[in-house]
Design goal:
The chain is α/β, with parallel strands linked by helices. The protein has 2 domains: about 140 residues, NAD(P)-binding Rossmann-like Domain (Rossmann fold, 3-Layer(aba) Sandwich); about 180 residues, Dihydrodipicolinate Reductase, domain 2 (2-Layer Sandwich). About 35% of the residues lie in helices and about 30% in strands. The strands form 2 sheets. The chain has a 9-stranded mixed sheet with strand order 14-13-12-11-7-10-9-8-15. The chain has a 6-stranded parallel sheet with strand order 3-2-1-4-5-6, sandwiched between helices. Helix 6 packs parallel to helix 7 and helix 7 packs across helix 9.
Length: about 350
């Protein structure tokens, strides 16, 4: 089955989708849409085999397409994705899936009723370093996870359609959920408004997962340094992912607590720490966006469930919604509606 794709939205990320899907065997990018003539001129120059249009409806209604990639502003994701699904097309939608969880729920139900693939572009689930961390956690190499701490900062780009929480923290929420195979029960959020009065430029989110596992995320558009780091602390070992250092993308630290010795008196008691080797494993590098695109094509062709399917996207939106609720409540914890367990 040939996957015939139309791309809606040809900004910086949309044109990357045109590039990667155009390089996959069994997949052809036929049509790209954007209201900007300048963006379409770039597509025409760089990808002359792709037809361009200013109307997204041309992509939605095209009879020769069976899949649509959506890379438009977040507020339009719901309407464009709904139209594409109703037109019988498989959908890869950039993250976050929607602004509101009710919209995301509707898209999940619609895709399932139509027998169509709905996948969300949570690209860090296809990152080689994150996948290596997942492998470490799943095989118990780090022990039980105690907490995770992420930093995602840079100087810009500053968006106007959503704030830093929906823009940046959606990555970290998705990654935390993926690594833990779980969803948080509550979230606390604090933020700062420095450039735009109604759009947060930076934020701190603390999420509590079952078994008292904590996930903390620091995101910012206003930082002098580009940082993409994630620290996972287990009760046996610890690991750090650094996406800006491809030669040492993951470090594993053999550090942690030792079993406390027996002491006769309280005054003799001390907490003992283990401080041993630091390992820099060899991580096979690849382009996450291309891996994600290949996965989407495979899921469409083989009718399999995507790693970042609609329900994964929905769980992220629920956390984002609760984080905004926490902001309105001066940073108090907000409870999160969780996905019901899948029946075995």
């Amino acid at each position: 089955m040939e996957v015939e794709i139309g791309v809606v939205g040809c900004g910086e990320w949309g044109r990357n989708h045109v590039r990667v899907f155009g390089s996959i065997e069994g997949c052809t990018v036929r049509l790209a849409a954007d209201p900007s003539e300048e963006r379409l001129q770039f597509i025409n120059r760089r990808f002359p085999e792709v037809t361009t249009t200013t109307g997204s409806d041309d992509v939605i209604n095209a009879k020769d397409l069976n899949a649509v990639v959506i890379a438009t502003p977040t507020g339009t994701h719901y309407s464009v994705a709904k139209q594409a699904l109703e037109a019988g097309k498989h959908v890869l939608c950039e993250r976050p899936l929607t602004l509101a969880s009710g919209e995301a729920e509707e898209l999940c139900e619609l895709s399932e009723s139509m027998g169509l693939t709905l996948m969300v572009g949570h690209v860090f689930l296809y990152n080689p370093g994150i996948l290596y961390l997942k492998e470490l956690i799943d095989k118990g190499a780090l022990g039980s996870v105690c907490y995770m701490d992420s930093v995602r900062t840079n100087l810009g780009p500053i968006r106007q359609d959503v704030g830093a929480i929906y823009d940046l923290a959606s990555h970290d929420i998705s990654t935390f959920n993926f690594l833990l195979d779980d969803e948080p029960t509550q979230v606390s959020a604090q933020c700062g408004y420095y450039v735009q009065p109604d759009c947060e430029d930076m934020a701190y989110l603390t999420m509590e997962y079952p078994n008292k596992v904590l996930g903390h995320a620091h995101v910012s558009w206003l930082s002098p340094r580009k940082v993409r780091q994630l620290t996972v602390v287990g009760d046996k070992k610890m690991a750090v992912w650094d996406d800006t250092n491809p030669s040492e993308v993951v470090r594993v630290y053999d550090k942690g607590l030792l079993e406390p010795a027996y002491y006769d008196t309280f005054g003799q008691f001390q907490i003992s720490l283990r401080d041993a080797d630091v390992t820099i494993p060899k991580v096979q590098m690849f382009e996450p966006l291309l891996r994600q695109a290949n996965h989407f094509v495979t899921c469409v062709q083989q009718k399999t469930q995507p790693l970042s399917d609609g329900h994964h996207g929905l769980s992220v939106v629920r956390v984002l919604e609760a984080a905004m609720e926490s902001l309105r409540d001066q940073g108090r914890y907000a409870q999160i509606k969780r996905e019901p367990p899948i029946a075995s």
